[in-house]
UniProtKB/TrEMBL annotation, chain A:
This is Peptidase inhibitor family I36 protein. Residues 1-29 form the signal peptide. Gene3D superfamilies: Crystallins (2.60.20.10). Keywords: Signal.
Length: 125, 158
C-alpha cells in the first residue's frame, strides 16, 4: 500500500517535471518586430533573421533559399497591406509558396523550407 | 513608411501577438504547418469578431493558401514536369525552343484546373470563411455604432 502511494507520488512528480519542461517547448514565441515580416535561417525562429517592413524582390543571400521559419507581425489597419506572400523565385517569380496574415507563423516545414527568394505585401492572398 | 501599421508607435509585440508556444495549428497540403497564438490582443480581437478563433483560423489559413496548394499539385503533374524538362533543355536565349516547349500555355491551363480542384476540395472551409466574415462584419458594425460621438475641442461642428 505504502509502495503504491510512493509510486503514485513519484509518477506525479515526474509528470510535473516533464510537463514543466514541455511548456518551455522547442519553439518559443517568434521574436519579430511589430509591423514586420520575418524569416529565419533555421527552424523554430533561430539563426540569422531577415525582417522587412516593405516588399523585397531579391532576398539577400544569407536568407534566399535558406529560410526555415517565418512569422508575420504586421499591424492591421484601414488600407494597410497586412497579408504577406512568399515566392519561390526572385521578383515574385516561380510560385507563391505561402500566404500569412498577422500573427501567423511557421516554425518548420520539412518538405518545403529553404525555398523563399522574394515576397510582397497585399490586402489579400 | 518604416513601420507597417497604423499611425503612431507600433504596439508591443508580445502584447499584440502573444507569447510562448503557438497553440493553434493547421498543416496545409503544401506541407507548411501554420500556427498562431490564442493569447495576446490580436487573438482576443479575433474571438470577439469571429466568435471562434480556432474555427476562423482553420478556415482562413486554408482559403489563403488555396493558390499555393494548386501550385503544389501542379508540381506533381507529369505533363507539367515534362514541359519543365523541355524548357530546361532549351539552350540559353533560344526563344523558339522555349515557345515550342509550350510551358506557359500548359501552366496557365493546368493552374486554372488545379485551383478549381483545390476550391472544390475545400468547399466547407470556403463556406465557413464567408460565414465568419459576415459574422465579424456585424460585430464590427455593432461595436462602431455603440461608440460615443467624438467631441472636438475648440472646433465648431460643421
Amino acid at each position: 500500500m505504502m509502495k503504491n502511494r510512493l509510486l503514485t507520488v513519484a509518477a506525479a512528480a515526474f509528470l510535473l517535471l516533464t510537463v514543466g519542461l514541455g511548456a518551455a517547448g522547442p519553439a518559443g514565441a517568434a521574436d519579430c518586430p511589430s509591423g514586420e515580416f520575418c524569416a529565419w535561417e533555421n527552424a523554430d525562429f533561430t539563426g540569422q533573421r531577415a525582417n522587412w517592413s516593405g516588399d523585397d524582390g531579391w532576398w539577400e543571400s544569407y536568407i534566399a533559399d535558406q529560410d526555415s521559419s517565418w512569422a508575420n507581425h504586421a499591424v492591421s489597419g484601414p488600407g494597410i497591406k497586412d497579408h504577406v506572400k512568399v515566392y519561390s523565385r526572385a521578383d515574385l517569380g516561380g510560385h507563391m509558396t505561402i500566404c500569412l496574415t498577422p500573427g501567423q507563423e511557421v516554425n518548420y516545414n520539412g518538405a518545403a523550407n529553404d525555398n523563399g527568394d522574394s515576397h510582397q505585401w497585399a490586402m489579400s492572398c | 513608411m518604416t513601420t507597417r501599421g497604423a499611425a503612431g508607435p507600433p504596439p508591443d509585440e508580445k502584447a499584440l501577438f502573444g507569447t510562448g508556444p503557438a497553440q493553434l495549428s493547421l498543416t496545409l497540403a503544401t506541407g507548411y504547418t501554420v500556427r498562431t497564438h490564442t493569447d495576446g490582443c490580436l487573438a482576443q480581437a479575433q474571438r470577439f469578431l469571429y466568435g471562434d478563433q480556432a474555427r476562423w483560423f482553420r478556415a482562413e489559413v486554408t482559403v489563403n493558401n488555396l493558390r499555393p496548394e494548386a501550385e503544389a499539385r501542379l508540381g506533381k503533374d507529369p505533363s507539367y514536369r515534362a514541359a519543365l524538362a523541355r524548357r530546361a533543355a532549351c539552350p540559353d536565349k533560344d526563344t523558339r525552343c522555349v515557345r515550342a516547349g509550350g510551358l506557359d500555355e500548359l501552366r496557365a491551363r493546368l493552374e486554372h484546373a488545379q485551383l478549381a480542384e483545390a476550391r472544390a476540395a475545400h468547399r466547407k472551409e470556403i463556406t465557413t470563411y464567408h460565414q465568419l466574415r459576415d459574422h465579424a462584419l456585424h460585430r464590427a458594425a455593432d461595436l462602431l455604432a455603440a461608440q460615443p460621438t467624438p467631441h472636438w475641442k475648440g472646433h465648431d461642428p460643421s
